[in-house]
Amino acid sequence: MEESSNSGGEWLSPAARLFHAPSFNCHIIAIIGCRTTMDPNSIKLGLNQSLIHHPRFSSKLVENGRKMKWIPTPVNLENHIITPNLDQQMESPTQFIENYISHLTTIPMDMSKPLWELHILNLKTTESESIGIFKIHHSMGDGASLMSLLLACTRKTCDPQSLPTVPVQKRASDSGFSGGGFWWVFLVIWRMLRLVLNTLVDLVLFVSTIVFLRDSETCLKGGYGKKVEMKKGKRFVYCSVSLDDVKLIKTHMDITINDVILGVTQAGLSRYLNRESGENNKKKRVRATVLVNLRPAPGIQKLAELMDKKEKKGKWGWGNRIAYVVVPFNVELQKDPLDYIRKAKVSIDRKKLSLEPFCTFALAEFLIFTFGVKVASIIANRFLSNTTLAFSNVVGPIEKISFYGHPISFLAPSVYGHPHALTIHFQSYAKKMTIVVAVDPDIILHPHKLLEDFEESLLLIRDSIKYKEPLDAA
Fold first, then answer.
1. How many CB atoms sit inside 10 A of residue 206's CB?
2. Could you give the CA distance from residue 49 to residue 145 in angstroms, rounded to a whole number?
3. CB proximity list for 181: less than 8 A, separation 6 or greater
4. What is the DSSP letter of 353?
């Protein structure tokens, strides 16, 4: 629901209030790797001319009775840009960065200022010369909108005056509905029946998950009694793989990139669970809650104009309009690596023919308005606790970009504060796909091994295609 405006500021939307509940206090972490040392003064100058003109990034949160409101406030960038003095000769910069980010999750946001900050770590790693870490409270916007806003602060490296190009996701083909006559009518009716049936089944499963339906206990699962959302010190690990490998699989199997990365995730989880538990996980129920943004993210051009003060306030859509879709994961070891992709496609195709996200969003809105944020947060916490992981994928720019003159080597966003012990995020950028894994280290003991399982699974699936191509051609 939109946040209404008035002269005294903007009230928080129901979803934004939910992100401030004690059991659902969510924050976004966005890691930016740069190919040069980051100059704090250049960053501050750029942010002063752009980001702080965005209403959310120049407003603080004020409680008014039982409600909260965004109130415009002057921004002192010295309070938002943190540049610690670091030992350039430290033994393991990568380990230090992991520990630094983990420590950030233990520090509450300062409510006396806008709820964001940028940490600049000028440390050289295998992938970058420096790291920027944005920490943003999730009530400031959904992940897709915030990523669009971040990209609006960048420019093409090859053309410093131009905004990045982000590919537009095409809708699924309706080729099966071409033609006319009886068969066309039959297919339309059959599709509508499947849409209704799938939606009803998904709603029953959604409500069942809130009430009693729980995933199997595995070495990946958080949930009740483990208080993952209340723990401090989440650990974030990430790596970059070849986007060309992903596209090769996509083209060969005539599927979408989402199908590929979901299949790779299932393959990686299967490998990890098999190694950790020592058994095939055929009977394990493992489900992911997939984030769906029901409001189209504001265009990069529009956000850039807003920050340049060319766009009047009130003409842009912002906030949190997020729904969840529950996707079952097949974590049984497969003899043919391509079976992971095939099974993922079946799951995704079925979910595309369902109104589950719209129904779950409407249900969440109803719960908040009827019972209040406290009760709604308890229900949301219970629902998420009964599933195993959170999964998300965001499309990034197709060319290399720079952040206020600093060429970017990778982007790695994630989130913490929810009850999942495992969150997996895929972020494309130029010719790379970054896999980000956020874990509760008390439950998932070997996050780097899990990350390696995703890498190896992608390579096995790619190689399986390459080995089969000559046979197919024959």
1. 19
2. 19
3. none
4. T
> pTM of the predicted model, to two decimals?
0.89
Gyration radius of the chain over CA positions: 22
Question: Could you report the per-residue pLDDT of 132-177, keeping only the tens digit for each?
Answer: 999 999 988 888 888 888 998 999 999 999 899 888 665 444 444 4
CB 113 within 8 A of CB 79: yes
Count of all residues that appear for the chain in the document: 474
H or E stretch at 403: strand 401-403
Distance of CA 105 to the CA centre of its chain: 17
Residue 21 and residue 373 in contact, taking contact as beta carbons nearer than 8 Å: yes
| pLDDT of the residue at 170 | 54
Catalytic residues: 138
Q: 334-373 pLDDT, tens per residue?
A: 999 999 999 999 999 999 999 999 998 888 888 888 888 8
Residue 221 in tokens? 């699962």
Q: What is the DSSP letter of 65?
A: T
Q: Which segment, 296-305, 392-401, 430-439, is predicted with the most confidence on average? A: 430-439
